[in-house]
Design brief:
This protein has 119 residues and is mostly beta strands. Helix content is 0%, strand content 61%. It is built from no helices and eleven strands. The strands form two sheets. Strands 2, 4, 5, 6, 9, 10 and 11 form a seven-stranded mixed sheet that branches.
């Protein structure tokens, strides 16, 4: 299994920045894609950004140019640098990791970290 622990959330004002981190640990053969999703109150969970082992990235249109995802494969850690934050970015942010456990590919989730952006 894979345990994911997020950190870095908090309360910021419009236009400020935050950096989220997520560390993966546990018993797994390898982690492939890692990513960040978010869920605002009353809304469904949505993709924010993903990054593959070789660094290929994918972003939601709403965060392109403001957010940057990166990872440190040696540390099994993924980061999300969030700049120019807006109130609509307020949500619980969840880290995800696709990993091989035994012979199966599985998707794992962290418990989330709250990001609140005030206007």
């Amino acid at each position: 299994q894979v345990q994911l622990v997020e950190s870095g959330g908090g309360l910021v004002q419009f236009g400020e920045s935050l950096r989220l981190s997520c560390v993966a640990s546990g018993s797994f053969f390898g982690i492939t894609t890692m990513g960040w999703y978010r869920q605002a109150p009353g809304s469904q969970r949505e993709l924010v950004a993903t990054i593959t082992t070789i660094g290929t990235t994918n972003y939601a249109d709403s965060v392109k140019g403001r957010f940057t995802i990166s990872r440190d494969n040696a540390k099994n850690t993924v980061y999300l640098q969030m700049n120019s934050l807006k109130p609509e970015d307020t949500a619980v942010y969840y880290c995800s990791a696709d990993a091989i456990v035994g012979v199966k590919g599985m998707k794992f989730w962290g418990v989330g970290t709250l990001v609140t952006v005030s206007s």
